[in-house]
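Hi! If you just cloned this repository, the fastest way to understand the data is to look at a raw example. We've pasted two of them here, unedited. The first protein comes first, obviously.
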Amino acid sequence: MLKKINDFLAGLPMTMIGAVFLALSFVLPGIGVNLPVDPAWATIVISGVPLLYLSIWRIIHNPGISKISSALLICIAMFAAIAIGDLFAAGEVAFIMALGAILEDMTTNRAKKGLKQLLSLAPAQGRKIENGEEIMIDAEAIRLGDILRVLPGETIPVDGTIIDGETSVDQSIMTGESLPVDKSVGEDVFCGTINRFGTIDISAVKVGEDSSLQKLIRMVQEAEKKQASMQRIADQCASWLVPAALMIAIITGFVTQDIVRAVTVLVVFCPCALALATPTAVMAAIGQATKHGVIIKSGEALEKMGKVDTIAFDKTGTLTFGRLEVSDISSFDKYVSEAELLSIAASVEAKSEHPLGKAIVSSAREKDAPIAESSDFKMFVGKGIYAVVYGREFYCGNEKFLSENGIIIGPPVRPGLERLHTEGKASVLVADRERCIGIIALSDVLRPEAKTMISRLAAMNTRTVLLTGDHKKTADYFAKQVGISEIRAELLPEEKVKNIEMLQAENRKVCMIGDGVNDAPALKTASVGVAMGSMGSDIAVEAADIALMSDDISKIPYLKRLSNATVGTIKFSITLSMCINFIAVTLSVLGVLTPTTGALVHNAGSCFVVLIAALLYDRKFE
């Protein structure tokens, strides 16, 4: 009950009502209006009760020196001002601290829906093979060694090994790879990944909490717990501010025999400007970032981003667009042009559901290449396509597929194939009944701003690292294109986390930038996580501290400079507030200030802090 009342009074609507009553307490006496009860009493109750509740709660529950908080000092000053009848001063210090708390809460509240979405990816059932029959059972009931059948389009319910069948598996949830991976007997598949094409039977090797998806969920949970909330600077200083304020007030009162001077010392010693320094600067910076399509979820993220010296990038969907496009067309038949080769391949692949086939057809349509009707279409899972086009038999697929159909791969095909493989590109061989007539290569598309962004970070002495689940050659090719020299490839989610931890073990402040579900644990483990907001997975966005809503990675250097400026502004504001406090305390001891004028002076200090922070909003960081 007490907590509900406290939360109600501490909310923004009631705090604003308190501000109105405080203003009336100041204005009405000046125009000759005297009410039976000073309106400042309303502000004292509205803003003072939550502070009193907080200070008592901390005294009871906090360990050691942390029992002494800024809330305790303000309560002492508030009661001292009430004792001498200066109600405006009492209400003013309570209101300023209440406003500071609201501003800070507005910058640190974070949604927690990401983990629920991750949990929803876990399959609920599996198709168990028992005595030659298929039985649907709950995923929790699957045991080691159980034989499970997974149909096209279904989610694989456990980690397992294929014992029958061939397929292509979309395992982007685990590795971030843009292409489905061809799988056959003896190869491993992971829980939560999607079987795209062929029917497979698997033997369960990791079930329940041991599965890869459950480990992924657990890592996000554990990393979430490691994220400590930012302790308020005023509270960090309270352990010495409270004793210092009390000692100076007591000595002042004893030496001068003037209780008003002692109370004035307590009032001006209140760390209102100190408390406002961080939340106001953070709010201004968050507003500035929002204008540029960068969503910053907490002040802590800004502070940490300012200290980052190493940035780790995912590849697919981060440095690249995460979509396949035809990158190379090579014809080995002098009678078949590149345009005709694309037309033949698109005609063969027109009925295919494979991402490579769809990308070829899409490229042909963009280039207005004719797509003929095919007949006798046959798809061989994990290998390729056979179809009859223009009355001729054609094959589109991998080297193994062509070899199985008696088509020999020799010069000049092999050198071209090896070159494309070195560049990390996916290759589709196009052949007629007798020979290979060409190669169509497909590749993810590099973001045009990626190279400039990396060079700008290098100019800021920021180390860049590529962490990707893609093949080593693919990673090397794209890293070379953008200028990243440190590459760590073929990583599962837990391996990305380990690499982040290794970098942090070198006393590095690491920022991780990614977009996929598989990046969520690394985003949470890093000092700062940045997610691609518009096309990134919801889970990655929720796991991150910062989201790029336009997916514009050129904003990363801007974000770094903004964070640096915010940290600098906070430090300057804290120094200024401490100087104002020192001067105000000196004037209070000398009797120059009264509780009311002291409250106004230290309120002016708070205004200065807010104005300095507001300058962040319109500063140019591009």
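Ok, and the second one:
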Amino acid sequence: MKSHIVRVHKSSEKLGRAEQLAWRIAEVASDSVAVEPAVIEMIGNRIIDNAAVAAASLARRPVVSARAQALAHPIEPGATVFGLARSQRLSPEWAAWANGVAVRELDFHDTFLAADYSHPGDNIPPILAVAQHCGFDGRALLRGLAAGYEIQVDLVKGICLHEHKIDHIAHLGPSAAAGIGALLDLPTETIYQAVQQALHVTTTTRQSRKGEISSWKAYAPAFAGKMAVEAVDRAMRGEGAPSPAWEGEDGFIAWLLSGPKAEYSVSLPQKGEPKRAILDTYTKEHSAEYQSQALIDLARRMRPRIGDLSGIESIVIHTSHHTHHVIGTGANDPQKMDPTASRETLDHSIMYIFAVALEDGGWHHQNSYAPERAARPETVALWHKISTVEDPRWTQRYHSHDPREKAFGGRVVITLKGGSTISDEIAVADAHPLGARPFARPEYVAKFRSLADGIIAPQEQDRFLALVERLPDLKAEELTGLTFTVDREQLGTAKSAGIFDWSRASAGRSVAAE
């Protein structure tokens, strides 16, 4: 890996392309190195993981809506969409949109946290959709996904967005564009333009994940993937981008990040160096924001030591700056303590999550968020006894570059009525590579089987999993099998029509009026 200093340059300085971050990213993406066996294995794991969480979300309203929008854009040869027949092909950017929402809706797939946050599995829907539409094989798909993961992880390590309230999809747009460029084996120049276009159109604020969180939390990464497909298409046609996108005096760093005097260090693979960043990432065992993963496991571990939960006076979670300020009481979001809050908001409330995990001894992707579950009087009472504080030790561990020290957990102190205390701590989730029960292929398959149960027929599950096992050897025509089909009743029903349904909706109203 080579470290690159990224800073603002005045227009008069005429920063050469070879010195720009976008060009260096494009050089990495266009460097067609072999994908290592461990990376191939992990890419397969994450394709399985994405399909698992997509299956569990198929009938949820945001996913139904996104799929309905995509269905208005059929094309040949096209790309597949989760749940639909493999013969039903849609325009790749819209397939990426629909699949991206399905993957993100439950907030239940892979994660990487460093200077910023990310769900690198969000790269898979757009890159896979383009591979299917353009007729590329398994080897090309692996090349593209390894590049997408590499660029996103490297950006997340080097550039903090959240301190400036910029949403993390600003790293996803460029990484997906780079991954698509690597898949298609495009020239460095083309990828360079596409990466900058993607950054320009996917820079949004973190209000997506603040206050009254809506379904846009699931849509935002899908939007970045869709924009990446379109950016690459435009660049292939010879269209350029705002440049230099990161370093320009009116660019991303100067006005949206730390300003004209700021410097960032972004490390990228050198020429000929394999892309291994996916191996630094980790998935979720529980359907909740990643900082809550370890604390759910800790709640499960502490529960037998407490006895009657009504005897609890207070619970204080000593944790990192990020956990305290994003999903803890340091966020100063009253919605995080509101039993009528949306699923998306409860997912970002460690106070709610810890209370339910303590009561139930675990977590469920549907039942734990049910309105009636959140409204239980005893749950609300316990929930409102929980607070978070930042502990410098946990903040330091959160930002550590040493994987043996890096931690996403905290220390919990439970004070009982009468004054006695129970305390315990956890550094990483049980499913983390350094955790008590690290996830490997059997655990990913078990997660898929569990979430697909009753939704995807067993023989269809078997077909999909068998295909993933042969990922490097898949021919172009087999790549369309990296999806799953379900019976129509599993797809849910759209509650209302939109612009893309206008003709059909208008006709229906006309008939009803007659």
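That's it. A detail worth noticing about the second one: The radius of gyration is 23 Å.
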